[in-house]
Amino acid sequence: MLDKQLYKQFMTPYLMDSRRQRKLVMGLNLSMLMINEYLGQFRPENFPITIAVTFDDIFAGLTPNEMMLKLKMMAAKLSQQHPENNLFIKISHFLASFDVAEVGMADLLLSCIDCIDMLTIDDDLMTTLQSWYDTYVSHAYDDKQVQANYVPMPVIDQLLNYYEIQDQANIYTENVGNGTVPLLIGGHASKYVEMAQTDFVTRLFGAIYQFINCVPSKRINQNCAYLDQEVRQHGCDLAIVNLGVFNTFEHTTENEYIPTREATAFSIRNLQAILNSYGQAAIIGNADALKQIKWDNGSLEAALAGGFIETMIVLKADASQMMPKDVTIFFLNMAYAPYPKNISQ
Predict the structure, then answer these.
(1) DSSP E strands: which ranges in 161-303?
(2) What is the distance, to the nearest Å, from the Cα of residue 285 to the centroid of all Cα atoms in its chain?
(3) Which residues contact 132 (CB under 8 A, 6 or more apart)?
(4) How far is CA 194 from the centre of its chain?
(5) Quick count: other Cβ atoms within 10 Å of Cβ 76?
(6) pLDDT at 305
(7) Mean per-residue pLDDT for 278-293?
(8) 323 neighbors 154 (Cβ within 8 angstroms)
(9) CA 98, 25, 91 angle in degrees (round to 5)?
């Protein structure tokens, strides 16, 4: 299993800093995974056309430094071929920061080459990504922010079951982790507003999902200040807000801070200001994270009784599906929002 291979790489002491190593392992594997999709373009001369080419074939006889130079050249070529998306630019920036001369880095590079070459033609890219994301987060004991961004696969399945494809929708997303949620729900003509608080590996996951779903960079705004005037005037149609699914399999103190938002509370009024009158919203979180919700002048009970909360679903913790704790999803219907629409943020 490739996720087991990643875990083995996390545990092998290539570098002194295990947290940095985990990010480098994940970043390099993700970068090589995407370049691997286009290896046929870099087939060595006189290599049999009937045989699938691997990184081992391309790197045969090269030193680790020469391998890295070759990887950078590949990423640069792919970036030119796909100007509509910035994925390979992100990969190029990551590879530029990878110093093969540093102690342990050459061995790490060779390990990642072996990991990618384990892929077969039957491996599904989307399934591989989700498995790797689960592995990355499940062992992120030293990185609370990554854990807070985590959205388990059963939650993603519930969201996809609840919402039809939102073609031509303006979708607001906050702290949604790997990026697969809004991009799978959005249609080919949808636009996205992202307010994610993520590390560079999580952003790389998001860029890959964006690339797979053929979403050009120009359709994704990453700061509300740069919203199109039309979006500002009419609001977004759908919001997906992840308040945090925190603590994967490791004990934490009862009062430990969950770093999902800069503010101390999540205001329902502010969410309403982002959405139009008939918009919908999903708020995701475990019990501790959901304490951040500020119901303003209302309450959870009133929201349920008045129809503002269309549905509330509780998914039970299941370690076999990377569900560290119970997760609650509130599905909101803005047509029943109990607050005046002229509230400013």
Answers:
(1) 170-174, 191-194, 220-221, 236-242, 266-267, 275-285, 293-294
(2) 16
(3) 2, 3, 6, 26, 29, 30
(4) 11
(5) 14
(6) 85
(7) 90
(8) yes
(9) 50
Cβ-in-10-Å burial (0-12, 13-18, 19+) of 218 comes to exposed
Chain centroid to Cα 239, Å, comes to: 16
Q: How many CA atoms lie within 13 A of 297 on its CB side?
A: 6
d(CA 16, CA 103): 9
Reported as half-sphere exposure (CB side, CA atoms, 13 A), residue 287 has a value of 7
Q: Alpha-carbon distance 67 to 57, whole Å?
A: 11
Q: Which tokens hold the place of 159?
A: 């969201």
Q: Is 39 within 8 Å of 58 (Cβ atoms)? A: yes
Provide the whole-model pTM: 0.89
Give the orientation angle of helix 87-96 with respect to helix 64-81, to 10 degrees.
160
Contacts of 174 (CB under 8 A, 6+ apart): 194, 195, 196, 239, 240, 241, 242
N-terminal to C-terminal alpha carbon distance within the chain: 47
Residues 184-232 have pLDDT tens digits of 999 888 999 988 777 899 999 999 999 999 999 889 888 766 666 666 6
Q: How many helices (H) and strands (E) does the chain have?
A: 15, 9
